[in-house]
Specification:
Length: 271
């Protein structure tokens, strides 16, 4: 009996150790296969190369806005790369909005490796590009998709200190990465093992910008309870689009783009 318990205990500790040391490989799933804007269905966008403080050049895609229109800054989720987000940005380009698809370190052939701090630095680099090119902060719509919701909240909270962004859209967001990890590994101390925390719950009250959360009731990757908890902690003005028929990756098959466009058209008020 004691021998069996010892074996079970050793196996448990081994699995916990595996989770800890492999967590970033489990969290980030970048693809290095990068198409062109045209092949992604957004031929009007252009690839830009932005040099970070380490001298590495990261590729993002950009299209300037029509007069008096905002610019969508898309922070993607944990898998693939920006070339797979052409379908998502297409409806906004058709509205005359500008768009910046932010290329992360280690994604789409970009140098470096993804982690929480590197993604924040990548986001800052992209937003600095907008500022240099005359796109005012109040014309930014920060759009965070899944893991990218943590990046969007961090950026919105940061810029609220000097002048709030135009609006924030969070697609299938979570309260913190630790909370999601604990949900998926309930019998492990997963909450305490996570190194890249993306603690949006502690920051959401500080974004000081109109907020829209879009989440699917059938989401099994980031259950809707996380989006609703984040929504409850946010200040007004805020809107929730809770889509009964959608899961995690198919929100745009169920009208999410219409919800976002309606939100921007009614809630975005540049200063």
């Amino acid at each position: 009996m004691l021998g069996a318990l010892a074996i079970a205990g050793a196996a448990y500790i081994g699995f916990v150790a595996l989770l800890f040391f492999m967590q970033r490989a489990m969290m980030y799933h970048p693809s290095s296969v990068m198409g062109t804007p045209a092949s992604a269905g957004v031929p009007e966008m252009v690839a830009i190369r932005l040099e970070n403080k380490r001298g590495e050049k990261l590729v993002s895609w950009f299209k300037s806005a029509s007069t008096n229109k905002p610019t969508i800054v898309l922070f993607q989720g944990n898998a693939g790369n920006i070339a797979g987000r052409g379908f998502k940005i297409r409806p906004f380009l058709d509205q005359g909005y500008g768009a910046l698809l932010v290329g992360y370190s280690g994604f789409g052939g970009n140098p470096g490796s993804p982690n929480e701090q590197s993604l924040y630095e990548d986001a800052q680099l992209a937003l600095s590009f907008l500022k240099r090119n005359g796109v005012a902060v109040d014309h930014w719509i920060l759009y965070g998709e899944s893991l990218g919701s943590g990046v969007a909240v961090e950026m919105a909270a940061h810029f609220a200190e000097v002048g709030p962004v135009g609006a924030v859209v969070l697609e299938a967001p979570f309260t913190s990465m630790g909370a999601v990890a604990q949900y998926h590994y309930p019998f492990m101390p997963a909450r305490y093992l996570v190194r890249d925390r993306y603690d949006s719950l502690s920051k959401i009250d500080g974004i000081q910008a109109p907020l829209l959360i879009v989440h699917g009731l059938r989401d099994r990757t980031v259950p809707i309870k996380f989006g609703k908890e984040l929504y409850a902690a946010a200040r007004e003005p805020k809107n929730g689009s809770w889509i009964d028929t959608a899961g995690h990756n198919d929100l745009y098959d169920h009208g999410a783009d219409d919800a976002v466009i309606t939100f921007i058209d009614t809630q975005w008020k540049p200063r």
